[in-house]
Amino acid sequence: MAAFTFSSQHRRPLPVRDADPHPIHAGKRFLVLGATGGVGSETCALLQAQGAAVFAADLSAEKIAQLSDTLNIPGATVDIGSETETAACVEAAITALGGLDGLVNCIGIAEHFAPLDTKRSQWQRTMEINVIGGYEAAALVAKHLIAAGRPGAMVNIASEAGKKGHSETMLAYSVSKAAVISLTRMLSEALATHDINVNCLCPGSIATPMLQDVAEQFADMTGGAQTDIFDSMISTQMHCHVQPSEVAGAISFLLSDAALPIRGQAINVDGGDTPY
């Protein structure tokens, strides 16, 4: 029998497999925060294709208008760092869709600061957007579901940085995403008796504008070429970037009834690079 050898050299990138377009979310209504980003926009499109009504929210009015026109879905601008705007956004989604059955929180910022020179204001901005705003939206959606007596599901987007950390320049970001993982666990326990399921995903190596920005910031610091840095930020097992549509597929599954036994988990979607 011929011997099998395993080598990372000359490995072909694994093909993208599209999520099932069947109407598994028919009759459901979801608010997607961070809807105009790479993962957010793919999530809106997939949930709609699977039968859900979707309300899109993000910071840029121009991008929200474009997404709303493309998918023919309602939307609104929101600064998740503002408690008032977050509350208004959730209320607008409830009004537009006639209620909500779940929440997807894709909003986040990834800024680079020296680990020993991160200012208080930089910590506050990172935590307000990546953690506190998401919590406030989740709490408002949960209260709505409880008052209506309906089950629901929520998915937060954390990061592999929340597990492994990137202390060189992304200490604050890594800490904030670790907080999202813990927040997800606590919300899952708190809302279990109300039949509201809460999980989070920990993406990595995702081909999004955010990763392009990270590569640009690393290029500025190291003097390297942005394209070379971005091209190197791939999954070692898949030998390519994870695509936003693949993350959207995982989000859709966690919002479904099939994911009912999966609760309070931080699931890696980074092509196998994080082992726990």
TrEMBL record:
GO molecular function: oxidoreductase activity, acting on the CH-OH group of donors, NAD or NADP as acceptor; quinone binding
One GO process term, biological-process aspect: fatty acid biosynthetic process
InterPro entries: NAD(P)-bd_dom_sf, SDR_fam
Keywords: Oxidoreductase
Domain of life: Bacteria
Family, similarity comment: Belongs to the short-chain dehydrogenases/reductases (SDR) family.
Protein name, per record: Dihydroanticapsin dehydrogenase
